[in-house]
Amino acid sequence: MVKKVKRLGEAGVILCRGTRARGQALVEAALVMPILIMLLIGALDIGRLYYDDIIVGNAVREGVRRAIDTTYTDSMVSTVVQNAAGGITVTGVTVLPASRNSSYTDTITVRATYSMTVLTPGISSLIGSPKAVVHEAYMKSLN
């Protein structure tokens, strides 16, 4: 148990050592807490953006692996990319060139976009929300 020590203050006011220090700590915590919460949410946003970037990149690579096989159509490649992305909704999956046949021997490109909503209030107005995560993958055709 904390013993309160009374002493005479500057203006002749009696001060209690325990209550004043607790009040000061409460005010400091109230001033610092919003900044810490914003930093925490910002770190979570950066982590989510990095995670989504990896997922979309892996999904696009999986799609280009399928696209080099000329038996896969563009819609089949789009489905492969969507399935490889898991719970992320990937939009704008494009396969270039659009027409491939068994004699095609050039580079095939698959591109996909994912829109991530930023949670941090101040950051969303600066960088824009939703933030687009775009990935492309290239692979030489096997034929």
Structural key phrases:
alpha+beta, two-stranded antiparallel sheet, 3-stranded antiparallel β-sheet, 143 residues, 3 helices
Quantity of strands, as a count: 5
| Element string (H = helix, E = strand) | EEHHEEHE
| Rg over C-alpha atoms, rounded to the nearest angstrom | 28 Å
Q: Number of helical runs?
A: 3
Overall geometry = rod-shaped
Give the integer mean of the pLDDT values.
81
- Specify the helix fraction band: 40-55%
Described by strand count, sense and barrel closure, the largest sheet is: 3 strands, antiparallel
Low-confidence stretches: none
Going across the biggest sheet, name each strand in turn: 3-4-5
Question: How many domains make up the 3D coordinates?
Answer: 1
Indicate the proportion of strand residues: 15-25%
Distance between the termini: 82 Å
- By secondary-structure content and strand pairing, the structural class works out as alpha+beta
